Amino acid sequence: MDVLKSVFKFMIASTLIVGGVFIGGTVFAAKKVDGIGDTLQQKLHG
To answer: What average pLDDT score do residues 18-35 get?
Structure first.
């Protein structure tokens, strides 16, 4: 039973870590795209 609990805890921790990385990557990519859009808009309207 202890082995099952530790495997379950490991799975939860791994899921949270991977989820955090995906969310962080998505936020970073969105900010990068937003910055590129701002630069493009300045070039078009500048």
So the answer is: 96
Picking from 41, 17, 37, the residue whose alpha carbon sits closest to that of residue 29 is 37
| Distance from C-alpha of 46 to C-alpha of 41, rounded to nearest angstrom | 8
pLDDT of 9: 97
Other CB atoms closer than 10 Å to residue 8's CB: what's the count?
10
Tally the residues of the chain. 46
Q: If we measure between CA atoms, which residue out of 21, 19, 22, 43 comes closest to residue 35?
A: 43
Neighbouring CB atoms inside 10 A of 39's CB total 10
pTM of the complete model? 0.66
